[in-house]
Amino acid sequence: MKRKILAFLTALTIGSSFSPLGASAATGPGGISELTYLSSNRMLDWNVKPATTWPYHFRGLISYSAGYSGSTSISGTGFGWEGDVINAPGPNNVYIYATLSGTAYAIDGDAFRVLPGVGTSYTKR
């Protein structure tokens, strides 16, 4: 279990595409995680796919910084891809940065953490 978490964290440096403020998606040996702002409907789309064939439960947090502070608890249970769309909080015309964090727990006992730095920025118009 510790090896999988370490491998997932190590993938940050070898398997992520970075923007100056973080990655909107990260892929590594422990799985895939994504956070995207959908400007057309002012929503945040989060998705995770841990590297497990077992069913799992994901518990996480989307944290906000810059022009708005706070967080939103998120969770999901499934196989393969799991995710949802949530309202993007914050006032209009203010720059906001959202970061995804959390852990997927497979029923075989393994844990898969979201890579650090998965996030996206948005300004609601």
Question: Any overview of this molecule?
Answer:
The protein is mainly beta. The chain has one domain: Immunoglobulin-like. About 10% of the residues lie in helices and about 55% in strands. The protein is built from one helix and nine strands, in the order αβββββββββ. Strands 4, 5, 7, 8 and 9 form a five-stranded antiparallel β-sheet that branches. A four-stranded antiparallel β-sheet has the order 1-2-3-6. The protein is elongated.
Let me know the average pLDDT: 84
User: How far apart are the first and last residues' alpha carbons, in Å?
Assistant: 44 Å
Class from helix and strand fractions: mainly beta
Q: Uncertain runs with pLDDT below 50, 5 residues or more?
A: 1-22
Evaluate the radius of gyration. 14 Å
**Helix-residue proportion:** 10-25%
Number of domains: 1
Continuous helix count: 1
Comma- or semicolon-separated keywords:
125 residues; mainly beta; Immunoglobulin-like; five-stranded antiparallel sheet; disordered N terminus
